[in-house]
Design brief:
The chain is mostly beta strands. It has no helices and 11 strands. Strands 2, 4, 5, 6, 9, 10 and 11 form a 7-stranded mixed beta sheet that branches. It has a 4-stranded antiparallel beta sheet with strand order 1-3-8-7, with no helix packed on it. 30% of the residues are buried.
Length: 121
């Protein structure tokens, strides 16, 4: 059994910052690419950023320069540092990861439960 648990969401003012965390736990053999998505109520879930096991990061153009994805492989945790937040960044943020589980070594895709980020004055 593998779980992804996000934390760090909350209320921020426009121009402010938040740091989200995503901790993976359970029978993990190896974690491959981790990613952050977000979803506004009534809209499709959209990709924010990805990071490989080796630390190579990619961002959706709208987030470049404001958001930074990182990971600590020793802690099985990914982070999303969000700066210069805008009201349109308000959404539920989800963590996603491709994980090889033990002992089967089967690779499956997992989602966290999401954490609400609200940007408002």
């Amino acid at each position: 059994q593998v779980q992804l648990v996000e934390s760090g969401g909350g209320l921020a003012q426009p121009g402010g910052s938040l740091r989200l965390s995503c901790a993976a736990s359970g029978s993990i053999f190896e974690i491959y690419t981790m990613a952050w998505y977000r979803q506004v109520a009534g809209k499709q879930r959209e990709l924010v950023a990805t990071i490989t096991a080796g630390g190579s990061a990619n961002y959706v153009d709208a987030m470049k320069g404001r958001f930074t994805i990182s990971r600590d492989n020793a802690k099985n945790t990914a982070y999303l540092q969000m700066n210069s937040l805008k009201p349109e960044d308000t959404a539920v943020y989800y963590c996603n990861a491709n994980i090889k589980v033990a002992p089967t070594r089967r690779i499956s895709n997992y989602w966290g439960q999401g954490t609400q980020v609200t940007v408002s004055s």
